[in-house]
């Protein structure tokens, strides 16, 4: 039977073994009383064979053995039965020829004690830091919870109001959406500017750019396209834009509220990371239709157009900027969609690993 090269080191509570065996398979490690037995197949000093060794340890250890196999070696961790420092690894004073100290992990007893002290001091500093920031964390949590609650109530009111009116009045409800819900939508979208500040100052862990694109894009549609043109108030496209926006938010904000209190509702989590996939592109498409419908109105009213001297020309029409905005809108759609999809993939991948 062939024996692999084994490196060893210790701490006061554990023994570490590193077995030099490449692509190890069929690993079998057992501890009986003070004897540790190892058997596995892999590439060692003699090529690909089955390798085996047995060590009678100096003192008893716990039967549970932790090991991790990498491409180049097998790392084994054994818990000592009693905390203490061993003079050697094996009972016999003459160590086996295949066993050698692991100088990458080797510490003297005094160094190991110092390592323990440093870990304890680090834990104390972390506990002190958490205690120091506890008030801030609580204030931040309350702030985020109240903010998300306000947004949830606002967008829920819009969504329910529009749904009830659609059921009650049918197609006629499409033409007065702005007059019945715009005040609440103005409030919610102005308040949404806080999300950019939250991301910028690190209050929430999210990228600033995607948040800025969404908030600025929506406010441009709401205040410039709808708010400044009275002719747009009665157009059905307002209904579709508002309805798609609120449909996304009545799922997103309660999800954030649950996160504030470290709670999770699986259905809500799934909706949060799934419902935006069809709704977000549809919302951008509705916004694009609104911009296209507003271009002839801006050309006719000359609103926001820049007058020029007669020698140069009449004016620079605001519609030129709207054509550029349409291009930027779809570029933003691509950028944000990719960002949100990565978030979704990362979240569900993390959940699978936890389960």
TrEMBL record:
It holds the Pfam family PTPLA. One of its GO terms (cellular component) is endoplasmic reticulum membrane. Residues 1-90 form the CS domain. It catalyses: (3R)-hydroxyhexadecanoyl-CoA = (2E)-hexadecenoyl-CoA + H2O; a very-long-chain (3R)-3-hydroxyacyl-CoA = a very-long-chain (2E)-enoyl-CoA + H2O. GO terms for molecular function: very-long-chain (3R)-3-hydroxyacyl-CoA dehydratase activity. Keywords: Coiled coil, Endoplasmic reticulum, Fatty acid biosynthesis, Fatty acid metabolism, Lipid biosynthesis, Lipid metabolism, Lyase, Membrane, Transmembrane, Transmembrane helix. Belongs to the p23/wos2 family. Catalyzes the third of the four reactions of the long-chain fatty acids elongation cycle. This endoplasmic reticulum-bound enzymatic process, allows the addition of two carbons to the chain of long- and very long-chain fatty acids/VLCFAs per cycle. This enzyme catalyzes the dehydration of the 3-hydroxyacyl-CoA intermediate into trans-2,3-enoyl-CoA, within each cycle of fatty acid elongation. Thereby, it participates to the production of VLCFAs of different chain lengths that are involved in multiple biological processes as precursors of membrane lipids and lipid mediators. This is Very-long-chain (3R)-3-hydroxyacyl-CoA dehydratase.
């Amino acid at each position: 039977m062939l024996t692999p090269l084994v490196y060893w080191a210790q701490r006061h509570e554990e023994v570490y073994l590193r077995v030099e065996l490449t692509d190890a398979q069929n690993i079998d490690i057992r501890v009986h009383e003070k004897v540790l037995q190892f058997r596995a197949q892999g590439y060692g000093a003699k090529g690909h064979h089955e390798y085996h060794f047995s060590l009678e340890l100096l003192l008893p250890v716990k039967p549970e053995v932790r090991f991790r196999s990498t491409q180049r070696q097998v790392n084994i961790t054994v818990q000592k039965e009693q905390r203490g420092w061993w003079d050697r690894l094996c009972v016999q004073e003459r160590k086996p020829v295949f066993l050698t100290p692991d100088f990458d992990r080797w510490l003297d007893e005094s160094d190991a004690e110092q390592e323990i002290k440093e870990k304890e001091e680090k834990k104390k500093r972390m506990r002190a830091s958490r205690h120091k920031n506890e008030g801030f964390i609580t204030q931040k949590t309350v702030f985020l919870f109240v903010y998300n609650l306000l947004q949830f109530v606002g967008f829920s009111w819009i969504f329910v109001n529009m749904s009830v009116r659609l059921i009650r009045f049918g197609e006629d409800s499409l033409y007065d959406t702005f007059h019945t819900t715009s005040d609440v939508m103005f409030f919610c979208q102005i308040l949404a500017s806080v999300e950019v500040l939250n991301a910028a100052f690190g209050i929430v862990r999210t990228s600033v750019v995607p948040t800025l694109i969404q908030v600025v894009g929506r406010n441009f549609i709401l205040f410039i396209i709808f708010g400044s043109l009275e002719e747009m108030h009665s157009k059905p496209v307002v209904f579709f834009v508002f309805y798609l926006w609120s449909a996304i938010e009545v799922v997103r904000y309660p999800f954030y509220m649950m996160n504030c209190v470290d709670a999770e509702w699986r259905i809500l989590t799934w909706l949060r990371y799934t419902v935006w996939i069809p709704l977000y592109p549809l919302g951008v498409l509705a916004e694009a239709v609104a911009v296209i419908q507003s271009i002839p109105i801006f050309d006719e009213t000359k609103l926001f157009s820049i007058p020029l001297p007669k020698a140069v020309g009449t004016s620079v029409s605001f519609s030129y900027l709207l054509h550029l905005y349409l291009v930027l809108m779809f570029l933003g759609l691509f950028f944000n969609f990719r960002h949100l999809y990565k978030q979704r993939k990362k979240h569900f991948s993390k959940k699978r690993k936890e389960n």
